[in-house]
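Appendix B. Extra example for self-study. Work through it before the problem class; the solution is given directly after the inputs so you can check yourself.
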Amino acid sequence: MPTPVKVLVPTGALGAGCPEDAFQRGVSLGPDVLAVDAGSTDSGPYYLGAAVSKMTDAATKNDLRQLMLARDKLGVPLIVGSCGTSGTNAGVDWMARLCEEIAVEEGLTPTVALVYSELTAAGLAPYLAKGAITPLPPMGELTQARLDECDHIVGLLGYEPLAAAIAAGADIVLAGRTTDTAVIAAVPLMRGLPAGASWHAAKTSECGGLCTVQTRRGGVFMTIDETGFDIEPLAADNRCTPFTVSSHLLYENADPYRLTEPGVVLDAKGASYTALDDRVVRVTGSRAETRPYTMKLEGSGAAGYRTMIFTAVSDPKIMDRIGDWLSRLEAFLREGIGKVLKIEAADYQLDLRPYGWNALDPRRAPTDRPPIEVGLMVLATAATQARATEIAKFCNPYLLHFPLNPDDPLPSFAFPFSPAEVVLGPQYEFKLNHVVHLDDPCELAVTRTFIAGRGEFHAAA
Amino acid sequence: MRQLKDVARYVRSKNAGPFWVTVDVFCDDQASYDTLCAAPSLGAVAIAELYGVGSNHVRIFHDDNLKVIKISFPRPIAQGSTLDVDSHAGQQFVPLLSVAV
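Solution. Structure tokens for the complete assembly:
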């Protein structure tokens, strides 16, 4: 019978921090593994498209140092998934450089496995050709052209390549894009614990302390065994309750009961949540169903460059007829962009967002309540930055002065900046929501090992 | 007729991956939960109309233990795309607050 496995999850995202007292309390409980996720698609397509991290070097290094020192003291594996926010090869190399710096500074020499999962359109072409890539709703069938539009593509690793790296002797695993849960479930699964309990524990703790009462007091500590798992906050003065633990499955999941992971579907519908005391919850009864092995693909590609102008309007006469004014302004700007700049409608996007007046309403429904003021964000998007800025510059005088009626005295609105145009740089869009069917879970993972602290690391990407 | 915000304790919305939005409606007591479960304004057709999406894609879950109604639907515009106004879909619960229940 496999022995229980204790997992310490310090935070929902490496770089978000874990209070030292809470972390050290978790360390004192003797975890068998330290597991943390370092990325997500949650912050939008830019980080994958541009292959840069959302988190700063300083914050990430602080958290990684805390974990590397604890790992050295405990002699247990440390797993970091989705390095560099989007898990590109550059993200893994960035994390490896921080790891190397810390090792030198602290005199540590851990064996580090880098598990890369960045893919290319060319590399995926054979899978597409043999029908091994299928869409997830609401996406349609994938085409090679769609793959070619991506600047970066990553595949979400399951637990298997992480477990393989640990089995081969890695002290630290720094992985490319990985499912948030695989990072946490890897060691329990490789030690033979049930899939239902392991995946459910991982799903519950993937956001760190979000399944606790005081969500900013650090992460959680879990013990996974043959029949379920116990979960408690790292901080002694924080609590898990059956409500905080069970309701976390709702968070950011379209389906709160059935959660798909590579090769498995977690079914948490029949799970029971019991308070063991006022801060520890035991969860039992979750099941896992084996499925053909699939790896989810994420891709992000350039969608032009953007320049923004922001103006503000509080003239009561315009506020009373803000809808009319906006319609006329937009029509006027579009006509001028065509006639004066000679830019075809198909070659740019102009997006007027009246913040304070239904900018966030999906239907842009009229209100019966005139706003006191409206911040009007105007976004010009085009194939080059120069063109986007040209469009924004054309709009500039009219966003300063555009009367409600043609014979009204000229109004002046409120620019907060000079220059009024703000260059936003490249704009990206998510292009993929598909899975690739694999014969071997490790088929598209590339693992490279080095000993940190000895100058052995050299970036691959 | 009461509005949803008068009956529910807490309502939130969030992206569920780049292509889906999910809204959670939390109730304090069984009576409120039963009221909301029975409200036609929280059915798939009404939700599709409210958010401008196809009703065959709207998914609604009733969690009797938590007294939560969960509503998920595909985003009309993928997260972070050029025309997206709410990247994390964090304010997309607001139109629901004033529906009649």
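Self-check: The mean pLDDT of chain B is 95. If your reasoning did not lead you there, revisit section 3.
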